[in-house]
Amino acid sequence: MRDFAQIQQTDYDVIIIGGGINGAGVARDAALRGLRTILIEKTDFASGSSSWSTRLIHGGLRYLEYFEFPLVRESLKEREVLLHTAPHLVNPLQLTIPIYRDRSRPYWKIWVGMILYDIFSFDKTLPVHRMLPKAKFQQLFRSLDGENLTGGSQYYDGQVTLAERLCLENIISAQNAGATVLNYVEVTEILLKGSRITDVVCKDKLTGESITISGSADAVVINTAGPWIDYVCKLGSKAGKDFPIGNKQKNGSTKGSHIVVGNFPGAPGSTLYVEAKSDGRPFFIVPWLGMYLIGTTDIPYKDDLENIKANNEEIDYLLRETNNIIPTANLERDDIKFTYSGVRPLPNSEGKKPGSITRKHIIFDHRKEGVDNFFTLIGGKLTTYRNVGEEMVDAIFKRMKRSPKPCRTDSLPLPGCILPSDARIQKAITEYGSTLSTNTIDHLFTIYGAKALEVLTLTKENPELSEPLSPDLPDIKAQIVYAVESEFAHTLVDIMRRRTTLAMNGHYGMDLLPILTETLQKHCGWTQEKCDRACAEYRFYMEHNCIPDYQLT
Ligand SMILES: Cc1cc2nc3c(=O)[nH]c(=O)nc-3n(C[C@H](O)[C@H](O)[C@H](O)COP(=O)(O)OP(=O)(O)OC[C@H]3O[C@@H](n4cnc5c(N)ncnc54)[C@H](O)[C@@H]3O)c2cc1C
After folding, report:
1. From the CA of 53, how far away is ligand 1's center (Å)?
2. What distance in angstroms lies between residue 279's CA and the mean position of ligand 1's atoms?
3. Cα separation of 112 and 290, whole Å?
4. What CATH number is given to the structural domain containing 384?
5. Of the candidates 301, 331, 309, 313, which has an alpha carbon nearest to the alpha carbon of residue 257?
6. Has this prediction a pTM greater than 0.90?
7. CA-to-CA distance for 348 and 285, rounded, in angstroms?
8. Range of the domain at 198
9. For a pocket test of ligand 1, which of 57, 76, 181, 381 has the largest count of ligand atoms closer than 8 A to its C-beta?
10. What is the pLDDT of residues 394-433, one digit of tens each?
11. Is 59 among the domain residues?
């Protein structure tokens, strides 16, 4: 998989820097349209912003307030595409908005918003909205604050519970279509001759080896480094001297944090979309993995991009506002299971209120800055990644002066695509039911979709891999081996945070480290030293990203 000698002998048509959801979407489309494609990711796929979102595949009801109608339409169209091409990952999600007299968005305004949202999604398969008068609303949501309540509204969007796996499936699909995909390889220098990028120099972070990746005569280089796009532009080098590409900052990140809590008194059975009492900002309370994901905040951010963490102020804000809307919740800091935080890659908009900065993406052509074969993606949501890929690949073909092959990603299913009614699931329950519980088999299909069959095959080849990782969890040893052998996982963080849901269990997944390292040593050839290092890295990651500061002292 990491044949660097071969990679260095190849001339690529498309070199993509950054393996978050947008880089993955570009790589998939480019490879499917026959371009020799390489994607380079400095950490793990989906380890940047793509790992820290609210996990909604949504039209962005809020964007209507800023008259971003084309963005809403684009997002709603993409929501429909994902519901059909990735039904194992993206599910319909009912959202409820409680409406209050003393908040900034009155009943009529929400109603108008709902009608517009339905108009912009005229071709949807999800149900249309419904407005709820006060009495009906209170009957359905008894635990919600009733003071100044005027009613509510319900509508549908999508939820991608495992956003990291949506990215991964795009990566796998890109590889299946012929792309070379590399994680833990960092682009350290971008070499230019005249007005063209000819090569990119990279460092393999697993071995320290330096490698040079070359472009074909008409190659195009794509910067999908999310919040890191400006750093990537600064990697330019010409005739042995630094040659930063462009001098204007393009990214203007804002930080968003979430808290995750277990069930609580008055917890809603479905998602709430609520206006905060203190500052009028909308935030979500979303059922997620048997817990509740509550967020987000929206704060201008210019600090370290590597380890971003919710601070106590953000945590208290989200707790307070949840308790405001659900008075019986009485949530306190101790109720938090973990937090997570990330930055939104947004167009640089100095001086603007974070919430009002456009969420629309821009494909920036560096020809304006004297570089002919370089495009940077500024912004871009999880929801719209596929369309970003299509637009970017169209731009690539145009720049190469080649006639574009048709894009197929709007209808081509992702590799794990399967519906709950698929006969293969029942067949697997019959075939593996004597060694694995139905709960485990269901869990595998929920995580891997149709690819669960490959995980199950591992248990047939080696029955020891059917063993559970813990008596309380449906997860089995085969998942660990599968992550390493078939899903590019190199670290415990990759395995526990982005290939499986193990990190979101119990004591930050720490209790599982012994059985995981034992499995990795026995079945994947990891040495004791590698396991010790991986455990230390895992603890560092959780402490610097997910465990609130007050729990560390
Ligand atoms: C709090 C929050 C909530 C959000 N909620 C939603 C939501 O509900 N729905 C939605 O649609 N969107 C949401 N978003 C937005 C969405 O998550 C991001 O816009 C999207 O994930 C960006 O993806 P990306 O691929 O552009 O960037 P990233 O995921 O950040 O990927 C960029 C990658 O580039 C890599 N990279 C950087 N430098 C180099 C280099 N030199 N060499 C190689 N690789 C490099 C990084 O390691 C990183 O993995 C949210 C974002 C946040 C922060």
Report:
1. 8
2. 26
3. 33
4. 3.50.50.60
5. 309
6. yes
7. 29
8. 4-49+164-249+358-400
9. 381
10. 999 999 999 999 999 999 999 999 999 999 999 999 999 9
11. no
